[in-house]
Amino acid sequence: MRLYVNIDHVATLREARRTDEPDPVRAAVFAELGGADGITVHLREDRRHVQDRDVRLLMETARTGINLEVAAASEVVELACAWRPLQVTLVPEKREEVTTEGGLGLATSDQLAPVRAALKRLAEVGVRTSLFIDPYEDAIRASLDLGADAVELHTGEYANTRGAERLEQVARLSDAASLGQKLGMTVHAGHGLTYENVGPVAGIPEIEELNIGHSIVSRSVITGMEAAVREMAEILRRARAGR
Ligand code: PXP
Question: Which residues' Cβ are closer than 6 Å to ligand 1?
Fold first, then answer.
């Protein structure tokens, strides 16, 4: 099981002040030191968090692989083709959403055309591709027909349910993962996974890779707070002591 750490929300914090900290590129170094198998970033069309500069620097500095999430839109797909990360995951994008709300729609020819075009361009430059989809048979079969190398199963619905409903969602993810693997695709999963809910998803043997972001960034803010305050208090103490 590979853990890809999504560092988008380190960039969200930086963009809240439009300054240069915290730098997601530095965060990636520490994520790798902590054991991340790869780094995920979502270059949104509105550039609300991750910037082009972040991806360019990550491409130069990361010791692991970069999984770049983009919409199936020509501007960001062309950037991905130029940067050639280890993997590109195509995701749906809506300007007004807070986060990616569902998997790619792959039911109509209008929905399929941009995804097909993006996959073709990425295959031309030799980038591994993954499609972020809801854990349903139709979406997995459509992803196979489109020629994607992998699927990332959306775990948002799982994360939003409790009790018996959650067990149903685990079964749905498990069925989708085994179908994907049977059809010869690599299966990833992610979205909304936390320290509390990740266990049952991590236990599905066909899932090879998890993408986890918000919960890890949130945890690092909390666990890093004590040391960060101590450091600032020490600077204040020294300043008053004239050192
Ligand atoms: N996978 C995909 C395709 C995503 O778009 C996101 C969120 O950007 C994630 C995984 C990670 O979700 P979370 O931040 O909730 O862990």
Answer: 6, 8, 42, 69, 89, 91, 99-100, 132, 152, 190-193, 211-215
Through-space distance between the first and last CA atoms of the chain, rounded to whole angstroms: 50
Answer yes or no: 9 catalytic: no
Distances 199 to 69, 96, 194, 218, 229 between C-alpha atoms, Å = 24, 31, 9, 18, 32
CATH of the domain at 175: 3.20.20.70
Q: How far is the CA of 117 from the centre of ligand 1 (A)?
A: 23
42 labelled catalytic: yes
Tell which atom from ligand 1 comes closest to the C-alpha of 9: 14
Closest CA to 127 of 75, 90, 91: 90
Structure tokens at 46: 């509105």
| Contact yes or no for 213/5 (Cβ under 8 A) | yes
Q: Is the pLDDT of residue 102 over 90?
A: no
CA 242 to centroid of ligand 1, rounded, Å: 47
pLDDT in tens, 175-219: 999 999 999 999 999 999 999 999 999 999 999 999 999 999 999
Q: Considering its fold, how many domains does the chain have in total?
A: 1
- What was the pLDDT predicted at 98? 76
**Residue 185 structural domain:** 2-240
Which of these, 60, 54, 65, 56, lies nearest to 23 by C-alpha position? 54
The encoded tokens of residue 121 equal 């361009």
Looking at the CA of residue 191, tell me the nearest atom of ligand 1: 12
Q: Report how far ligand 1's centroid is from the alpha carbon of 163 (Å).
A: 23
- Model pLDDT for residues 2-40, shown as the tens digit of each residue: 999 999 999 999 999 999 999 999 999 999 999 999 999
Q: Mean pLDDT throughout 215-227? A: 98
